[in-house]
């Protein structure tokens, strides 16, 4: 068996977090994290934290917390996906990579919801797919914002004339 090249190691390092996070999302789709099971934990805690809330308010809060879970897990998935698709981090990713990233996370969101057909206590929801894609897209947009700021900052640091003009503008 041949040795791994530096490029192979870099690819492995950038894609491993994506794979691990996808597995974690898959785990969150298990029966353990069904609405009925999470309500057993959230409802008593919410009743304790907000004793004046009605049962309907507690159920609504539980639903909102669950949907925010979808947003946050796919937000992180979007960040990791675009990071893996754009490993150099020295420029803004191309539109093609952005669309590939959104397509991959949409495909995974659909497959994750489809998988729930086979999980007792879980039901697939197109609304959840939409929420997942919105969360992942928000993660991708944050990645783009971060890389564009990093690139602008590096451009200023690399160009002494720009740095001097920037300091004059601040005075």
Question: Overview of this structure, please?
Answer:
The protein has 171 residues and is an all-alpha fold. Helix content is 78%, strand content 0%. The protein has six helices and no strands. Helix 5 (126-158) packs across helix 6 (160-170). The longest helix is centred in the C-terminal third of the chain and has 33 residues, at 126-158.
What are the SSEs and their pairings?
Blueprint: H1 6-28, H2 35-49, H3 55-85, H4 95-115, H5 126-158, H6 160-170
- Largest sheet, if any? none
Q: Could you say which structural class the secondary elements and strand pairing correspond to?
A: mainly alpha
Rg over CA atoms, rounded to whole Å, is 21 Å
- Report the uncertain regions: none
The H-and-E topology, N to C, reads as HHHHHH
Mean pLDDT, to the nearest integer, reads 84
How many helical elements?
Answer: 6
- The total of beta strands comes to 0
User: What fraction of the residues are assigned to beta strands by DSSP?
Assistant: under 5%
Helix percentage range: over 70%
Distance between the termini: 62 Å
The rough form would be described as globular
Overview in brief:
The protein is mostly helical and 171 residues long.
Protein traits:
0% strand, 6 helices, mainly alpha, 171 residues, globular
């Amino acid at each position: 068996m041949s040795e791994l090249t530096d490029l192979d190691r870099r690819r492995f390092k950038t894609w491993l977090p994506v794979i691990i996070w996808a597995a974690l999302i898959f785990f969150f789709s298990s029966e353990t994290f069904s609405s009925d099971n999470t309500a057993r934990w959230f409802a008593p805690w919410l009743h304790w934290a907000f004793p004046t809330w009605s049962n309907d308010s507690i159920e609504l809060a539980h639903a909102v917390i669950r949907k925010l879970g979808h947003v946050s897990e796919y937000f992180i998935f979007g960040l990791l996906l675009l990071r893996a698709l754009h490993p150099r981090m020295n420029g803004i990713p191309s539109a093609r990579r952005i669309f590939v990233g959104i397509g991959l996370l949409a495909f995974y969101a659909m497959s994750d919801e489809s998988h729930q057909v086979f999980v007792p206590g879980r039901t697939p929801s197109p609304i959840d797919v939409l929420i997942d894609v919105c969360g992942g897209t928000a993660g991708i947009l944050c990645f783009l914002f971060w890389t564009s700021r990093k690139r602008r900052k590096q451009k200023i640091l690399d160009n002494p004339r720009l740095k001097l003009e920037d300091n004059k503008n601040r005075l």
